[in-house]
Amino acid sequence: MAQWKRAVLLGLLSWLIPFAVSLFAFPLKKQNAALFATLMFLVVLIVAGALLDRYFGRRPVPLREAGFVGALWLAINIVCDYPLIAYGPMKMTAPGYYSEIGLVYLTYPIFALLAARLARR
Length: 121
Known about the structure:
Elements: H1 4-31, H2 33-56, H3 63-86, H4 94-100, H5 107-120
Helix pairs in contact: 1-2, 1-3, 2-5, 3-5
């Protein structure tokens, strides 16, 4: 059974931690955009692994719950990004956002489903 409060709180952290790192690493984007993008993808991947481990704990997680948590975190990240993208300093179009940032958040549901599947073995 999904632990709603825990899933939402960890989902907020799944957005906040990469956002905080991006603030410090942002000057790198002007010098080397590809390196910045790779760094941010690695940060999201590490955060996904750490927070999913924290959420799953030592219990087996059904694939359905893992998919729900991953999808929830994907939605939380997109919703938290929206004010910054639509009204904030970045002012990106929807296609620009999804091609540059939004697709990286698919890491959360994919990682969650694969981790749950591996843990069942």
